[in-house]
């Protein structure tokens, strides 16, 4: 009989423990004292395929993997002999001012003649038709002079276009970063299907990228404190959640979140495996808030 009483008391105590445990567990089955741990990887702030804007033979590539480059730096050049020739022709055309000087002199000549005839006509010493012809010749000469000026402006625009074509034969980087891959070398041909010359990574800041089951997202918000462990360096860093994707991945049922990592000293590597742990105090606070909201 005593054994039976002992068994009943034990079962009752176990039932109370289970009830207490269930009461401490969140709606999603996460205990406030448990740890939310996720595996992920680091990603560059920007990952850019630096491409040539035109096709043609690649005359030179001036960088190697690991080189640091700055915004606007030329890292490659396509052959540009034809474009350079067009620039020289346009520059020569602009320097040719003979036609402009001739038309200006013609305007001055007809202006002087017309003014003289006007004075003579005022004194009754010039025929009206003679003055009318002089004025017409002046208008024609002025129109020719204006045409030459317009042609000079057009030549200046053509020179600007040819210089732009030369500039487009240069491959420049759009931002500061580090060259991680070189896809084409000197003498290779750039095609529309394969225009990328190098891969550029901007690594002054990295992002830790993690996929979190949607059921656990109730516990995490932007700004939630956490701790990240980097495999390659063995370092742990205190972080905060920087961004959370607004969409659920249908295949995995997860939501992607990111944490920002300062890499100004270049101590961290892109693609490093890492582990994110949401701090227990955060889980407890989120659980209490969720419980109060349900009540």
Description:
This protein has 295 residues and is α+β, with helices and mostly antiparallel strands. It contains five helices and twelve strands. A hairpin with a 5-residue loop joins strand 9 and strand 10. The two termini are 45 Å apart.
Q: Measured on Cα atoms, how large is the radius of gyration? A: 39 Å
Question: How would you sum up the major sheet?
Answer: 6 strands, antiparallel, barrel
Strand content bin: 25-35%
Query: Which shape, going by the Cα principal axes?
Result: elongated
Number of helices: 5
Low-confidence stretches: 1-30
> Structural class per helix/strand content?
alpha+beta
Q: Give the terminus-to-terminus CA distance.
A: 45 Å
Mean pLDDT: 86
The percent of residues in helical segments reads 25-40%
Order of helices and strands: HEEEEHHHEEEEEEEEH
**Annotation, overall tally of beta strands:** 12
- Main β-sheet, spatial strand arrangement: 1-8-11-10-9-12
């Amino acid at each position: 009989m005593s054994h039976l009483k002992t068994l009943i008391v034990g079962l009752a105590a176990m039932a109370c423990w289970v009830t207490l445990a269930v009461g401490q567990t969140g709606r999603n089955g996460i205990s406030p004292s448990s740890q939310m741990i996720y595996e992920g990887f680091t990603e560059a702030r920007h990952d850019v395929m630096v491409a040539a804007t035109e096709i043609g033979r690649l005359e030179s590539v001036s960088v190697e993997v690991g080189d640091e480059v700055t915004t606007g730096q030329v890292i490659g050049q396509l052959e540009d002999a034809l474009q350079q020739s067009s620039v020289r022709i346009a520059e020569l055309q602009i320097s040719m001012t003979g036609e402009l000087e001739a038309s200006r002199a013609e305007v001055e000549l007809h202006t002087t003649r017309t003014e003289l005839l006007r004075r003579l006509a005022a004194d009754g010493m010039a025929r009206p038709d003679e003055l009318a012809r002089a004025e017409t010749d002046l208008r024609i000469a002025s129109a020719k002079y204006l045409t030459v000026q317009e042609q000079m402006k057009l030549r200046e625009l053509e020179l600007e276009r040819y210089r732009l074509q030369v500039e487009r034969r240069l491959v420049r980087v759009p931002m500061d970063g580090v060259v991680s891959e070189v896809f084409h070398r000197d003498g290779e041909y750039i095609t529309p299907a394969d225009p990328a010359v190098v891969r550029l990574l901007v690594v002054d800041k990295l992002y830790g990228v993690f996929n979190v089951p949607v059921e656990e997202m109730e516990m995490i918000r932007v700004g939630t404190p956490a701790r990240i462990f980097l495999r390659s360096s063995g370092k742990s860093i205190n972080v905060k959640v920087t961004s959370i994707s607004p969409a659920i991945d249908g295949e995995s049922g997860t939501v992607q979140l990111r944490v920002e990592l300062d890499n100004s000293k270049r101590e961290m590597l892109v693609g490093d495996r890492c582990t994110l742990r949401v701090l227990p105090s955060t889980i407890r606070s989120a659980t209490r808030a969720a419980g109060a909201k349900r009540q």
